[in-house]
Amino acid sequence: MKQRNELLLHLIGEVGHFILDSDPSRMVINLHLEPEGFHLSILDDVERSDEEIEEINKSLHATQRPELAGYYGSMAGVDMLGNARLNLVGWQVKHGEIRKREGGTRIDLWLGDDQFDPSKFSIPG
Amino acid sequence: MRPGFEPARVCVKKLVRNPFLCKNSVYLFQRSSVLNRADSMLYWLTWSILVLIIAVGLTAQGVVETLRGVLILQLHPARLITDYSVVAGPGAAMVNAALVAAIGLFLLRVNRIQMSGPALSVVYTMLGFGLFGKTPLTILPIILGVFVSARLAGKHFNQYILIALFGTALAPVVSAIAVELSLPGALSWPLAVAGGVTVGIFLPPAAMAMLRMHQGYSLYNVGMTSGFIGLFVASVMIAGGVELGSVLIWNTDPTLELRLFIPLLSVVLIAAGVIRGGKSSITDFREISRRTGRLPSDFMDMVSSEGALVNMGVLGLTSWLYVVVVGAPLNGPVLGGILTVVGFGAFGKHPRNCFPVVVGIFAATLLFGADPAAPGPILALLFGTTLAPIAGSFGAVIGCVAGFLHFVIVMRSGGWHAGLALYNNGFAGGLTATLVASVMEWHHQSERRSK
Lengths: 125, 451
Known about the structure:
By secondary structure, chain A is an alpha+beta fold. Chain A contains four helices and four strands.
């Protein structure tokens, strides 16, 4: 439980840092928590270009890097000095995606174990 | 479905159901681990380089002499600075270095680690320090200790593998217990292995704590960690009455093989990048030069393998040229420094972010009346590029100041851990980066408040 909460706080911290870097006037953090996993959804009111979306998507869809996730991943959400780095998050999640929504952007992250069923996870858009 | 919720939009088929960690760590998962063509090429290239180094080593000194030299190295004290090309000859030093790097490469391959920036940087660092301080016999207990640490934390070893391999910087702890403590013969090596395993167990938690201190602005994070642990080990030994005086075994007349090692390697790396990538390798090299280099900056993943190979080669050639120009010997420790720079050419360093730091260190060298070719200053300049992300992130002036401060600290810090941690510059660089990062954070916060 403590490990899960710590991981969640780190992920929320890093993604929140990323969103705040773009100076939004609204940020909504939505979390759906189950014993087998969770779905984290973060919405803002910043309209991003297709290039920016592509760049973020690339970071969130990082290939499997256990050697980086287990070590450098511990830096996620712990400092505000440099730019936020979504690849620290991308290495650690099971699936992540970003899409444009009306007047802003939405980032979704899913994590879970073998019993994890993403279809049960459902945060309204 | 629960009322008020809609199904999440995720393609389940894309997710491979492999536990990321051990069974009891349920929250992290990994996608399938498939080594691609670029990985295979880089593994093949690195194995070929290691085999070539062994062949050159055996030819240079003769098979029997070389093997005898390699055996001598396993049982020799290895605290900073012990140049293996003096202790056992250049051929034996080269073979030992290649064997140390081969152990690292083998473990990376067995654990199916992507052959990318971090993996290449650790292999080249091990290769470099195999010329002055690491041997196959003394690194294995440290790696075993990190393996035990991973098990204790309920994690898979592949999550700690970089810490394990970089952590072999503490190999002199093993050799010091085995050889320098004058213990009874039957006890010395078992105690040395136990000591190595113990420091290995402490490495992962300490490494993660150190990472948060300098926030990724020093590339040799395990260097800072091993210096920190080395400080405690040295203090315990000294408190127990052990004399750990300073060591300086320094080859002033390196052979032709050692002198030509770096330019040949650099040409191979540049050629590999250009042949594979063509013109795009040069474009990618320029793109790499725009990155800050802050940990973890895997240039191979962020830009391209080809651009990173060119960057590694360019860094190797420029470092080698500097050493030649100031008239320093191309011996084991100096080659170790250049090889580490080359390795981190795929993981954070490029000429643009290294240059300001180098200027700061050079300025400090001249200001304090030191000889740029002397052991301390030349190693400080090569390894001091651990601070490259500071120049890349905060600009050339701050990078230059960081380089200056680094020189001041590193000339003292070796004595603090009595040379038991091989990455003394990583230790000093980590301290410098912590200071600079904390001042910059305070400055940014003050700026925000005043706005």
